[in-house]
Specification:
binds zinc ion
């Protein structure tokens, strides 16, 4: 019995060596190019996209430079507090997490989880 072999890239039948998987090297590189393109976005891209979304949301809800917003509102928009770029600790020991120039601090007010939103200030640059 003769096995019919088909090119993985274009689907045409292949003649030649038994272990051949593609018509030629064009089909081979086309197939590999497609595979790479369709792969899950790499971890770097996922983190990058989440940071961009976080920054966009913090910016949108903090037009005045300081604001308080219910955490649920941000979370529903896709905000993920686990992704941030750096932090700043104030003199009281509160740790503000920052996504680039926009910071947030989780706080419970009247039993509701909220985020206090701030903007990065020059004096925060001082490393402690
Ligand atoms: Zn082919």
């Amino acid at each position: 019995m003769k096995l019919k072999r088909i090119c993985l890239a274009c689907g045409k039948s292949i003649t030649g060596r038994i272990d051949k998987k593609y018509c030629d090297h064009y089909c081979k590189s086309a197939y590999h190019y497609d595979r790479t393109r369709n792969e899950e976005p790499r971890f770097y891209n996922k983190v990058d996209n989440q940071l961009k979304l976080n920054r966009k949301l913090l910016k949108e809800y903090n037009k005045a430079g300081k604001a308080t917003v219910r955490s649920q509102v941000l979370l529903e928009m896709g905000f993920n507090p686990n992704f941030f770029t750096h932090y700043w600790k104030n003199s009281k020991g509160d740790v503000y997490l920052f996504v680039y120039e926009f910071g947030f601090l989780k706080r419970i007010e009247n039993g509701k989880a909220k985020y206090v939103l701030v903007k990065w200030q020059e004096y925060m640059n001082k490393a402690k």
